[in-house]
Amino acid sequence: LSQATTEPPKKKPDPVTSETVVIWGLRLWQVVGIFAIFVLAVIITLCCIFKCRIPRTKKEIEARYAQRQAAKTYADKLETVPPLNELTEIPG
């Protein structure tokens, strides 16, 4: 059997809200905001460095494919051109 005590009941912890102080005196919403800004800055930086833009239309996709094909054929034809010193030699 449990014995009755004269102690007051244990206090429940306060519920976590957006105004709860989390770390360094910052509230929860401020910490979440700083973290979100940091993640967004990293994503924007990576997209700028690696140019990872997704084409939006079928026309853009086809234009980009045609550009790659043209660059490839140009590079292939450039390999067949003889060196410059062979072109500038005057025979005889």
From TrEMBL:
The keyword Glycoprotein does not apply. PANTHER family: TRANSMEMBRANE INNER EAR EXPRESSED PROTEIN. The chain crosses the membrane at residues 28-50. It comes from Urocolius indicus (Red-faced mousebird). GO terms for biological process: inner ear morphogenesis; sensory perception of sound. Keywords: Membrane, Transmembrane, Transmembrane helix. It comes from the Eukaryota. This is TMIE protein.
